[in-house]
């Protein structure tokens, strides 16, 4: 089996979890995984120190880009936005399925996460949900550690305040 394919398949469940939690849509998560796969195939493996870190960074950045683009698309939508449920396929559970199951987020949390900006959402999820430390979050988001600490702080405050990020015009 190709080394690219083996590495990607090994980390696919976690990548799917990150993408779905950030985007709230299985379809969008699958699209991001496909884009990440295409980039991963074009990458020379000898230049990658840790496949998992490279893949999570790529998926996170693709999700942030997609969230920014979705903001423009959602301005024309009048109804409420709710994430679609994730229905597990027939694939065998991963070795870390128990940890993945324990870290699953409810639909209510996804609705709360919708209040955050894309960067706040990425920093909050990576730090508070996936237990990444601030240097790792800073590396993934291409920001300073201080900026990432501030993003996580703002995200926590926004989640506690229970108010919308902005008021949409009718």
Write the H/E string, N to C: HHHHHHHH
CATH structural class = Mainly Alpha
- Major sheet: size, sense and barrel closure? none
Dominant shape: globular
The portion of residues forming beta strands comes to under 5%
| Number of H/I helices | 8
Radius of gyration: 16 Å
Termini gap: 54 Å
Q: How would you classify the helix and strand content by structural class?
A: mainly alpha
CATH H-tier superfamily: PhyR, sigma-like (SL) domain
Short structural summary:
With 170 residues, this protein is mostly helical.
Report on the architecture of this protein:
The protein is mainly alpha-helical and 170 residues long. It has one domain (3-82, 94-161): Butyryl-CoA Dehydrogenase, subunit A, domain 3 (Up-down Bundle). The chain has eight helices and no strands. It has helices at residues 3-23, 26-41, 51-74, 97-102, 107-113, 118-129, 134-141, 145-161. Helix 1 packs parallel to helix 3 and helix 6 packs across helix 8. It is globular and about 50 Å long. The mean pLDDT is 80.
């Amino acid at each position: 089996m190709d080394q690219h394919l083996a590495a990607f398949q090994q980390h696919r469940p976690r990548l799917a979890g990150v993408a779905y939690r950030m985007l709230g849509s299985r379809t969008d998560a699958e699209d991001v995984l496909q884009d990440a796969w295409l980039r991963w195939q074009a990458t020379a493996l000898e230049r990658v120190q840790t496949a998992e870190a490279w893949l999570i960074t790529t998926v996170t950045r693709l999700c942030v880009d997609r969230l920014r683009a979705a903001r423009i698309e959602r301005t024309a939508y009048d109804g409420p936005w709710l994430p679609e449920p994730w229905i597990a396929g027939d694939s065998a559970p991963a070795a870390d399925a128990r940890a993945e199951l324990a870290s699953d987020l409810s639909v209510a949390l996804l609705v709360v996460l919708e209040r955050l900006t894309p960067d706040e959402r990425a920093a909050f999820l990576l730090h508070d949900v996936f237990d990444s430390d601030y240097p790792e979050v800073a590396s993934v988001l291409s920001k300073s550690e201080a900026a990432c600490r501030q993003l996580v702080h703002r995200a926590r405050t926004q989640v506690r305040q229970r108010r919308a990020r902005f008021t949409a015009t009718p």
